[in-house]
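Quick one: structure for this chain?
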Amino acid sequence: MKRTRLDRGSWWSHNHITHTQYYQMRVDTAQFHGLLCLVRLFDGEPFYWDLPIAGKTQIIGAGMQWLQLLPDNARHAITAKYLPKAKTVCGKEYENSVSLWYVDMIENVEYDADGVAVFVDQYLDVIFTPAGDVIVDDRDELDAAYASGELSESQYNAALAECDTVLATLCKDIEATEQFCSELLVYAKECIKNGLQPFQYKKS
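Got it. Here's what it folds into:
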């Protein structure tokens, strides 16, 4: 199974991004218990996906922030991709607006030798947008991994069950999900304002 580092270094070189900041923190609040990782992008040309409802949707580029959430006792990783544009959600004004969410079904969370969190990807993903897109992606990769023996039957069924959970919770009320994520982005930004430093990599 593929391992994905939460600092997303491979994405940046591929998209000619050279200036980022990565934050990684444990969060225990009334609304969320788990790992929160934030990447701020300071350069790079915008890149877009064309989605059925939202249309041309930016996923990367200067000024964006990627909020990544790994909830305790769950087998998925949420990435909310934020644009530097204000938006009102559930009657509250936020400084940034979500362009889309990308949710990976995962096996588990690990840590590399330098301390960066890593999730082990189970291939299946859910993509959704504030406009109402809800897309289950890479089912073919999940099926191929099961057919080849890379995934056991229990791992295969767990990925499908987790996908159903994401669809029934995060995608059921997208505005509520947007408010939930935006509140956590505000929380992370307050931590940074109060002195939280970009992630300090350990020497391997």
